[in-house]
């Protein structure tokens, strides 16, 4: 390093003041020089041009420079950093571009291995949107009894599909594989379990990637804003098709825990027991904030293209980022402390700005895995619906008023008389039945008393429809996305309505460090309490 | 809506099975049709072309369609959503492009209203990088006494500058304006307070936006990886220049709380008291994860251009996103509950995918404000340095070994003999002095006992250099970024070294709901405890 080349190695101005060797002017000169040096090429055009040479440090963008020289410019004080994580994203984009024209770059999110309930009746949504027709994709396990009194509706989390358990036509293990089956918490010897894909999602139910019947083009961001209650209404239309008048129970975790409560409040006479695991009665600002950042990073991906990416490359980088942020909220700090600590992926290497610590490679992998598994627009709409969730009375009244006003839209729309039956159902010849095998685990966690603070009156008034329903509310102390106080709020609110059949269980940090994801993992406590409550 | 236009309104296949009206094949046909319809234009070229029509829904991209028609296509079941948040980003990019060529699009991050300490001596960094020369920008308040025994070195958080308090040459209030001054916790009647900008930052100290003297071009991502200890070494070179042999105290919050400990461990004989507020002894995986997502969203902004954006448009969207994520970690859920609740910015409007709830507009504003205030590359390097922070003995030994191996780099570099004095200082004629005015607040929070679990042996061995130093450790129960257990860990580790002069204060949720940001806001408890400890 020859510091004679420095731009500031020559100025000499008389010194003055308290202990000063060179005056302020010199440093200002330094700054001005710095400013000037960097400016000659600063036009938008040169910036765009330079973008094409992204991997080349500035000073090596000269004719005839070899690739090696560009990467390790001899005139640089230190070598330029490399960015394998960006190389990987670029390679992925190139690979998606190169996919055959016949299959298209956009992946198909649904396996198609599910049942469908297709309604030609328009569905009016809470915020005034209309789905002229809609499909509910679903799967079932166990057998509906003669009195049709043993049905359990299982609600999913945001990104989960109806594939909660393997089926005859799809042997892939489901997201609650160990919780469903003969002798399991959702016991297929006793219950007929129905799990749906939410509308707004991308696993076969109508969502932003579906075709708008009005013009045969994908909805994209012409899809209307929807709510948890809209999703539940579609589910109950399916129950109509299945001729199930009343559910034995409504069960759900995470977003499904919201829907499970919403089902009981929308259709109190059609729901027996209610189970809400790691859910809430209304989304709170921290959860909204975390989902907001996920939506923003996705929408900022230029490939998102305001939702109209179905003919192009999907915004896989934005989806990856959104999932990485989500993953941070799904687990807990203490669990990561035990699992990853401060270990680096390769301690022998110099630290990098790309993933470096094990926790980073874990997040990177989780994001990468999800980036083409779920439709980006579905993520936006379903996550927004979660934000809008509020079982308070005021919100319910406003919604009812809006629905009243908007119901004229339905009346004025032209109906196609040629379609004689409005909803159609597909079911397999033989519903799937679990072969008895596993021995159920027994130990249960004792219910934990609530904090005792009075729940908000608006919420109590809003949940009064559940006053008579046996309800199980479970939460996990290490959950940061749906913190345990939110489940305490549900339980206390229900008790304040006069409900004497509320069971509240909170798993402490001594029981689970898995945070929000505990409901997917803890067969012993989540599953055990579920089973004993349903029996 | 005429459902006769639906692509699935015609198929009729014999029904079969349990209660089914139409069979599975029909839904598969539906899905296949959907797939086919979307594919004809799915080439990368059409995707790129379509990107230019981002605000137009797909079906309206026809010749002659008016703007109004594009936004409200008559054939769509619902109107397309609008995206004012993306419009704003695009407008901002256009505005940055249009900036005068003479000033350049890249903003100047430093006001220049600070002092400089410029060293022509190369600085060897912990991971083997070299800064052939470096500048430390700094500000001071109060007056150094004759024995030079009253100096307090104040360390900043990640994005804060040396401007902790207004000065004669910069009257803008500083980030700790109320904590510094006559009669304040950092009492300028007693102490000479020095606050520096960290190297790696962008407020005048050498960082990625500085010119590499080797070629006169900005370092960008040719800047070497650095550590908290590297920043501290540069600060102590400044202390040499100020002829301060020993600090009265080393004080810092957040990242500064890390540096304050690091200063005492690197130079135990040059530090009197140590204050570490909302800091840690080693970064834990959750904090690394949150910073990882910030770095990733920034690096994914195409304008980041692998760090070489100084001649173009800075990655303001990526910076905005990174700051929004950071902001989520700076405050607490309960505070937001009180401040924003579930209020929407405009409840009369239909919900939007762009910011909608007040908490979202708050995050949006925080991100927007920061997006051009701080150099994106500085964010990457300084945030990475925080991840690398670990005061454990093993890490210190490995670092010492690397430094030993790399010290040959310094010896082999050619030195410029023409520069006779290696470091130069600028100081104002009269250091700033606060006019006595405010009455100090008195109440203090009682120190809270630690959890009692044994601190890790590696950390105890690594912090043994602080065994004799009076140390104040403060934490905040509502902090999710530097959780309170991390400050308990510092205190317990120091006590385990045999230090009997540790004071540990934890502000409970009854005292502060402001989370990590409490150190910026709570003059009474943070300031009060600081004052009483320093006296």
UniProtKB/TrEMBL annotation, chains A, B:
InterPro entries noted in UniProt: AB_hydrolase_1 (IPR000073), AB_hydrolase_fold (IPR029058), HAT_MetX-like (IPR008220)
Gene Ontology cellular component annotations, sorted alphabetically: mitochondrion
Keywords: Transferase
Source taxonomy: Eukaryota, Fungi, Dikarya, Ascomycota, Pezizomycotina
Database matches in HAMAP family: MetX_acyltransf
Protein family according to the UniProt entry: Belongs to the AB hydrolase superfamily. MetX family.
Bias type Polar residues, positions: 33-46
Protein name in the entry: Homoserine o-acetyltransferase
GO biological process: cysteine biosynthetic process from serine; homoserine metabolic process; methionine biosynthetic process
Superkingdom: Eukaryota
Sequence ranges assigned to domain AB hydrolase-1 in this UniProt record: 151-493
